[in-house]
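Let us work through a complete example step by step.
Step 1: write down the sequence.
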Amino acid sequence: MPTNPDIVLLPGAYVEPGVTLGQRITIGANSVVLAGEARSSRIEDDVWIGANCTIYGDVVIGARARINHGSVVTTSVPPKAVVMGNPAKIVGYVDTPLYQHGVAQTRVSDTTTIASAVNNVTLSTLKYVPDMRGSLSVGEFLRDIPFAPKRYFLVLGVPTAETRGEHAHIACHQFLIAVAGSVAVVADDGTNRQEFILDRPHVGLYLPPLTWGIQYRYSADAVLLVFASDYYDADDYIRDYNQFVQYVKTGTK
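Step 2: predict the structure and record it as tokens.
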């Protein structure tokens, strides 16, 4: 059992030998953390685990994650994620205020762009014209959208429990629009983070380079359209959050 005073095990909690523990961890009453077959399970710093939880498999619980009471965790949990349920799924993120975009307008004649709390991330309400024959939404690249795209992709058919994104780009710009349904998007610049709900086809979120992006809580009918400024390049991705924070600070992976 852990002897580090920064690790709090409440009555009945058990951590199997082989689990790597960080600092300032609380494990709730009657919760069990098993090491997995490869003995590679790890709980990073500042994690809180509620009562009656079970964590097993070769998983990593990211820094500052929160595991709510009674959760069964069998897959890795990203840093700052809040999970719950059996099987556990992501239901939110700590220190991530929700951007409130106000009441939806029935007609928008000019694109408006509003800054967020995250560095250079903006939310745009694009031109929108409803009509009895159908509605029209339009945006112009290099005017409403601050780059010319070389690629687009669509994300659809995502189960509501799944999380996508969880990476940053070094050089690529992105612009996200939920053309159907709704998607929750978290943007993070390494210091500040904010959550946005994309639920109208004339609202777009601009993610500049060096922004950690996460998409989750897809509605069943959600279709997310993403414009990208560059062709696909695997070397442009940063897929580990700790490496992302380091890159923002030092400019190196």
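Step 3: interpret the result. The two ends are 34 Å apart (CA to CA).
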